[in-house]
Amino acid sequence: MGLRLWIRRRGAVSTAVLLVCSAGVGMCLLSVLYLSGALQQGCDCSSFQSKRSESLKVAEGQHKLAVLVPLRDRFEELQDFVVHLSQFLEAQSVQHQIFAINQVDNLRFNRASLLNVGFLEAGEDFDYVALHDVDLLPNTQDLTYFFPETGPFHLAAPHLHPRYHYPTFIGGVLLLTRKQMIEVNGLSNVYWGWGLEDDELFARLRDAHLVIHRPGNITAGLKSFRHMHDRRVRKRDQIRCFDQQLLTRRRDRRTGLSTVRYTLLERRELTVDGAAVSVLNVQLQCSRQQTPWCDCVQNTGNSPKEKRREIIHALPPEDVIAPKIDWKKHISPDG
Ligand code: UDP
Ligand code: MN
Questions:
Q1: CATH level 2 (architecture), domain 61-327
Q2: CB crowding 160-170: b at 16 or more within 10 Å, else e
Q3: Could you tell me the distance, in angstroms and rounded to a whole number, from the CA of residue 132 to the centre of ligand 2?
Q4: What does this protein do (predicted)?
Q5: 127-145 tens-digit pLDDT
Q6: Which of 56, 96, 98, 328 has a Cα at 20 to 30 A from 2?
């Protein structure tokens, strides 16, 4: 650093030094020596600096997790979830905040869009997110919710999820850094109703060359999570209308974080037995031109199966979204 710059950085005192400097080089050097001595008397700068960098390191190490929970009509599950997960994450010293993104419009449920909204509304305080189903409670502390440094971390892995065991499954609970979520433009917004949105996210992560990691050495196996889901009470919306299969079985490079349309009606800060949750009441918006299946109530307006199959078969394989679920091997308490 040049002398003048060094001097300028020391504010008012340095103005005096500059004046002295203009009186002669010798005097100038003397006053610079005096000034640096005075500064050193004021503090032990070396130890101050090392303390400061230590505290910076701590700050850098303090990752903050936003738990994003898509929600509709599952208030009982939410109450259990918030109490359980708060205690669970506290035990791991994971700094976190839970957001329930509650869909309050009359459209079909859209898990992916709610996760996009949660990400946008949580703000920039968080450097990673958990895309978290409300009905999955981690049962073992072997499941760690730490910052996913090396790539997306799929906690509800196929060998641990109580219901879904196919190799490319990434639903249930997935940790992503802010950067990773932005890189893939979040999730597709075309998935109204149950299923496939997580399989499309798998294709996004794959195309972005993000390597998915999963927990190893978990002795609890299929008991690692409790799935609070009775399918007779919480029915999955498997209605298919207006050829939605044609678009939802196909990779979407168009919609995502950048295109989700919604209104945030209100934000409520609730506590359940002392555990905090921010509830975001959200109205999603649907373009009926692009996704006419966003509010149908029965199977209608679909092309014959053979025709649909033909169209899907003509796509490049990497554009086909088709999870390989082996329904024969498929056993789970909720069916
Ligand atoms: N969900 C919800 N209300 C619904 C449908 C789904 O809150 O009507 C949320 C909830 O967080 C749930 C997740 O979406 O855990 C996944 O849906 P679901 O449990 O029906 O699917 P599964 O993974 O059991 O097939
Ligand atoms: Mn479920």
A1: Alpha-Beta Complex (3.90)
A2: bbbbbbeebbb
A3: 11
A4: Catalyzes the transfer of galactose onto proteins or lipids.
A5: 999 999 999 999 999 999 9
A6: 56
